[in-house]
Amino acid sequence: MWEPQELGAMRSHLSDFKKHRAARIDHYVVEVNKLIIRLEKLTAFDRTNTESAKIRAIEKSVVPWVNDQDVPFCPDCGNKFSIRNRRHHCRLCGSIMCKKCMELISLPLANKLTSASKDSLSTHTSPSQSPNSVHGSRRGSISSVSSVSSVLDEKDDDRIRCCTHCKDTLLKREQQIDEKEHTPDIVKLYEKLRLCMEKVDQKAPEYIKMAASLNAGETTYSLEHASDLRVEVQKVYELIDALSKKILTLDLKQDPPPHPNTLRLQRMIRYSATLFVQEKLLGLMSLPTKEQFEELKKKRKQEIERKRILERQAALESQRRLEERRSDLASRATNGEVVPPRRGPAPLRKAEGWLPLSEGQRQSEDPDPLLQQIHNITSFIRQAKAADRTDEVLMLQENLRQLQDEYDQQQTEKAIELSRRQAEEEDLQREQLQVLREREWEREQGQAASLHTRTRSLDFREIRPFQLEPGREPRTHLAHALDLGSSPAQSSTATKTSPPSLAPEPFRGWSGSPALGQEFLPQSTPSQRSEAPSLNPFDEEEDLASPSAEGTASPPAPEPSLGPPARLLREYNPFEEEEEEEAVAGNPFARPDSPAPNPFDEEDEPPPRTPASLPVPGNPFEEAPCTNPFEEDSDGGQEGAEPIEEELLLQQIDNIKAYIFDAKQCGRLDEVEVLTENLRELKRTLAKQKGGSD
Amino acid sequence: MNVVFAVKQYISKMIEDSGPGMKVLLMDKETTGIVSMVYTQSEILQKEVYLFERIDSQNREIMKHLKAICFLRPTKENVDYLIQELRRPKYSIYFIYFSNVISKSDVKSLAEADEQEVVAEVQEFYGDYIAVNPHLFSLNILGCCQGRNWDPVQLSRTTQGLTALLLSLKKCPMIRYQLSSEAAKRLAECVKQVITKEYELFEFRRTEVPPLLLILDRCDDAITPLLNQWTYQAMVHELLGINNNRIDLSRVPGISKDLREVVLSAENDEFYANNMHLNFAEIGSNIKNLMEDFQKKKPKEQQKLESIADMKAFVENYPQFKKMSGTVSKHVTVVGELSRLVSERNLLEVSEVEQELACQNDHSSALQNVKRLLQNPRVTEFDAARLVMLYALHYERHSSNSLPGLMMDLRNKGVSEKYRKLVSAVIEYGGKRVRGSDLFSPKDAVAITKQFLKGLKGVENVYTQHQPFLHETLDHLIKGKLKENLYPYLGPSTLRDSCFSSQILLVLHMSKLDLNSSIKPKVLFLLEYRNRCFGALQILVSCP
């Protein structure tokens, strides 16, 4: 709305000001410096071990003494000098005064002044570095005056005589030094407070980034690290709270009570600290529990998966269209087939030229260089974290993310590439196959119609894209539709092989949609599919006969171990390839503790079949003592989950306490009540939980 | 050209430049107002400014651990206070900022007082006006004229305010003024003088078309300030009164303690920012939506928060809820009070007659309506006097003018002398003799056609028929058709009407009518017009 606006005009008078001030102040500074230099000379030698005459000689050399005859009266009090009222010389300026008007400077004071001036002399003209004042408390030097002892003793072992003027100037100087060195309690506390705030400003964004990433199901950060950081930040908050409270009550019981402005300052600091905590603490999002995190991870994978499928579908769609066009051409002119198929889908490829064929081949032998790189960077991050170099960590994490994206993309590309090549090879056979397949498809439909109407209608829609893998398509399709208990042993072993986070291959073909899931049947194992590389629809038919009969006649009753993984349903993916073998291995849903997005369909899940991998109490549909699905999970795997649950509770309790405090301060009693009720509720839950776990 | 932002930038710069550590802001009476309009307390607390002190306050303690930021107007008293302060410094170090040009001799006497070398900065930051809205500033001057001439003190303050405005926005404008007003001419000359004298300060990057400062006098259109307005902001100003964004609600019957005084600032209140220029009926429905929204978010007291997820949601929504509850109760109270006043003072009926007086030329019907309302006991004496003023202005030279009769009615109604005097004062201030142009009967053919067409179409809203005269003036200005014989340039100008300046500073000078408090909102009202019609920005100075 507004055009960018620069800071308005301004004009500085500082140089003018300094010029005038310097003229005025120079003589004062010169005076002080002169006195200090003389004082230094007077204290430079060992007074106690030097005889009086020698001391006097030195003193006279520092400053010329005024002639006795010139001063008949004391210039300060006006008394006449006589034998009894003797003259005394100021050792610093050489002037004369009577004994009553004489002042003394003790050696410690002199040392203090000279040593302090050594480092501040150079900075004298800069006001910001030497704040000074005459209005501080006058302390310290009075005692040296009262300690005047032997009147007649001419020798001053440990003090230096001077006039009142010089003494005044030096006292002022001393005050300046004192003020510079003295820091009141409030300043010390305040500095600590600011340090804490800075720490929060630095740590909180880091934490928020972690929590956001974790809550999105990314695996860039570790959950433990994040919760450690959270605890750390919370501790700093507690410290801020404590410090500001201390400032608030500082000197409160002192007598006389502090100035109202001091109190106001303390209140304001406390208030601003409260504001700070409120604003920042409430911005700290909570972390997922371990279970939730697993859940989130899976969701994210699905999300990525779905995106990839869509991309691939789009690519294949355009490929198909191109081929249709080509076959049209072919019917008209035979050399129409020369049209390179690659051109069609090209615009869909995001990183053209990324994937040379050779690399794809090499990859099958040794691990993908990208994967290696990802591993490397992960370990770098760990090291950098250990070394506490946050900025580097950030950079690396950014790097890692990019790599992962790149990798995902690469996989997609590869898939597209593969299918395209296949499509080319099979191009010629396609038309015949199409006819055959359709015939076969109809038959199949007849068999399964009663049970799987919905699946069918879905698949029917997808039939077009399948053209690319004509040999395979009907087989897998059928398997999908009918083959309930196919090769249980394989799938169960596959699930055991690797946890999802390590599986390098992205998973394809997963559908998280519960509506579909209900009707889905167990996937066929890919090995089955791949064992027939050049599939002939007629071969397949034979194959199919037994499983389909099995599937329709008797609902699957495999060994227990197969239970969940086999039942973890996958939407049929028309574009699956060999890679799928790995995909199955890494299937996140093979994990037993993932209830939410995978609605086990009722008919398929008789509890007795699943004792080994999924404990009965973990079934969210059976027992629901509490609405939180994650609590049930923790019931299932008590050991691991309990502490986190407790932590969460404690966190909530803390938060609510903060609100109560706040509400009380603002006098909103009704809110306090509601909050207190909540607090009680929470505490009860906590107690219950503790009791339960014991 | 955002004046709020301009001042805020100055203040932020001061605080930044003083570095870390506890700070005290030392101000005078006026700069306190200036700062409080652009910064909220919690905002400024976050910048480590914990104390706010007046330079003239005697009860200040020595606090050597604080840094002092002094933001002061360069007046004689302030300089004296500052000299005393520097002789016996209460804080460790001083950063001194004057809100306007300070003389060299003052700088010298300050420097000589600083024996302890506690001053680290002496600067001029031109935040010498109160930024009410992004495009409105005020100098909070009450009664700036004596008769038809400037009060010299106020003239110099207004000049200072205007030049500070130009400097803070970095504009060096051409100046035009309203020929019919002597006061406008004086002000224009004074501003020009300062620009000439401080030419070094006014050396900004030249734009192709220099900005324009147009100084107008309210006497050309005394009608607009006399009408009741129906936008949220204008009503708040008019009916409740608002001072430095604070509304005093203590007179509202049955008001709760927290709501005695509420702050209404478009900077921090989204609802207000979105609704300040909407009319009253729209506000009503928006408030209803706000309430419904609030009800939805409000945690139900009976509903137990059973699961941790529920609780978590509650806790996470709680601060938002709290903030919202504050906003809701504030606006409900304010709008409730407005609507109470509207019905108590019979304002709808009054406003209808006002609009008739301002926009139509049917004398007998107008007179009848005014007479009828004067009999109505619910019409306040102030509203009654305003109706008569409107009548007097419009039908000043009408053949069957019956002003004396209306004055009698006023007296019979018990309207006090103070208000009755205003009627003749208005005529003197904004009567036909004074006006440079004709308010009521358009002269040129285009305007006549326009009015005719308007009559045919009928009126959309009887309460908002009147268009301020300023509308027309600005329209001409934007189109480059503003007549130079009515609004001459000050001094020779190389650029003439043909070029259109996108940067327009408009100064509305108002004077004697400011006896009554209701004029301020009228100035605000004009801003709405800006939002609808122009990309250009005007800044109005009101001196009520």
UniProtKB/TrEMBL annotation, chain A:
Residues 118-150, 320-350, 485-647 are annotated as: Disordered. Residues 574-583, 630-647 have a biased composition (Acidic residues). Residues 68-171 form the FYVE-type domain. Residues 386-420 form a coiled coil. Residues 133-150 have a biased composition (Low complexity). Pfam families: FYVE, NPF, Rbsn. SUPFAM superfamilies: FYVE/PHD zinc finger (SSF57903), Rabenosyn-5 Rab-binding domain-like (SSF140125). Residues 320-329 have a biased composition (Basic and acidic residues). This is Rabenosyn-5 isoform X2. The lineage of its organism: Eukaryota, Metazoa, Chordata, Craniata, Vertebrata. The gene is RBSN.
Automatic annotation (TrEMBL), chain B:
It holds the Pfam family Sec1. Transmembrane segments: none annotated. The gene is VPS45. SUPFAM superfamilies: Sec1/munc18-like (SM) proteins. Belongs to the STXBP/unc-18/SEC1 family. This is Vacuolar protein sorting-associated protein 45 isoform X2. It comes from the Eukaryota. PANTHER family: VESICLE PROTEIN SORTING-ASSOCIATED (PTHR11679). The lineage of its organism: Eukaryota, Metazoa, Chordata, Craniata, Vertebrata. Coiled coil: none annotated. Keywords: Protein transport, Transport.
